[in-house]
Design goal:
The protein has helices at 6-13, 19-59, 72-76, 81-98; strands spanning 63-65, 110-112. The chain has 113 residues and is mainly α. The protein folds into two domains: 8-60; 62-113, no CATH class. The chain has a two-stranded parallel sheet. It is elongated.
């Protein structure tokens, strides 16, 4: 019994593509391409967002002093976290004003949140 030769035998055994099969294959290819474009777009947006966040963090020249938790005995005396943060901010501003050399940091760059 003679064997049919290699690739031509395999191709001959496959059913012929119908018009419906061709439409489905084209739809799958377009859907796949659309999904790839969408994933690339989302990754690009996320990357640009991350770069903007890093750039803003690198270029930030301000100090933010946030209120924090204090022990209960200090809170009873009226020294809450917000009060202490404001006192620290005032002390930094006084140090800035008293400095004999000009600082690279502008005095309005200190802020509390």
């Amino acid at each position: 019994m003679a064997e049919s030769g290699g690739v031509s035998g395999i191709l001959a055994a496959e059913p012929e593509a119908t018009a419906e099969g061709t439409v489905q294959r084209r739809f799958r290819e377009r859907l796949k391409a659309g999904l790839q474009v969408f994933v690339i777009f989302v990754a690009t947006v996320i990357g640009i967002g991350a770069l903007l966040i890093f750039r803003n963090a690198i270029e930030a020249h301000s100090v933010v002093i946030e209120a924090f938790q204090v022990p209960p005995d200090l809170a009873q005396r009226g020294l809450t976290g917000e009060v202490i943060a404001n006192q620290l901010l005032d002390h930094l501003a006084d140090m800035e004003a008293a400095a004999s050399i000009s600082s690279a940091r502008p005095s309005n760059s200190y802020s509390s949140s």
